[in-house]
Amino acid sequence: MCTVVIDVAGTGDARLLAVRDEDPQREWDALGDWWPDAYPGVSGIRDRRAGGAWMAVNASERRLAVLLNRADVGDLAADAAVSRGSLVLESALGRSPVAPLPMHGFNLLEVGPDGARVLSWDGADLRETALADGIHMIAHDDVDDPGTARIAAWLPEFRALGPTAESADWASAWTGLLASSARLDPQDDRAIIRDNRPHGYPTQSLLYCTAEITPAAVEVDYQALPSPGHWDAAPGGQAADDSASSAHEKRAR
Fold first, then answer.
1. Are 144 and 131 spatial neighbours (Cβ–Cβ below 8 Å)?
2. Tens digit of pLDDT for each residue in 196-253?
3. What pTM, to 2 d.p., does this model score?
4. Is residue 42 scored above 80 in pLDDT?
5. Exposure pattern of 177-208 as b/e (b: 16+ CB <10 Å)?
6. How many whole angstroms separate alpha carbon 19 and alpha carbon 192?
7. Are 199 and 1 a contacting pair, CB within 8 Å?
């Protein structure tokens, strides 16, 4: 039940904020070049258990991809399901999924030289939603879905901040709004920084990234939250990482 907010400002030009929800017991590695042989030039946030990624970026090709879970319309046995962690790695090399897929449902955000889109798989159909210029929000259902409580609550707030391409400080403004949203109880259905256990999932918000993709460069900033489902902002609006007893940042260019 991850969350992405993205501002598309033309072909190959976008800025985004992505919050990852995952089981805290499922270990991960921060942004890095973890796949030099299989995916040369690709950097990402690695899932140690399956070896795939939640987010991946290919700076030389100006590509970025983020994976969000989505409900299935059918039943896929656990022992028959293939990990979705390869999707963003393949996407970062310009290889998008093709149906049918032996995977549970997902929303795959792809940003590249040809624009931004979301590929949605529900276990039966693979749909594409091209993202027009402007600010959009994605969670576990459709893009800008008004029936998703956190989108209904916060998409208007992000849009009210104005176009990110016109602000050198957009990442601070968006992170500040994320901090404001964290005043909600993480179990509130409107929360972006989340604890999904009351909804039947073991996942909680663990980290967030801001990213800027332009025809000239790709830049990603990574921040781990101090504890699952909690914000606890440090000076400058950054989240403190208690594993280092200070703000922890990893940057890819």
1. no
2. 999 899 999 999 999 999 999 999 999 999 999 999 844 344 443 333 222 234 456 6
3. 0.92
4. yes
5. bbbebbebebebeebbbbbbeeeebebbbbbb
6. 8
7. yes
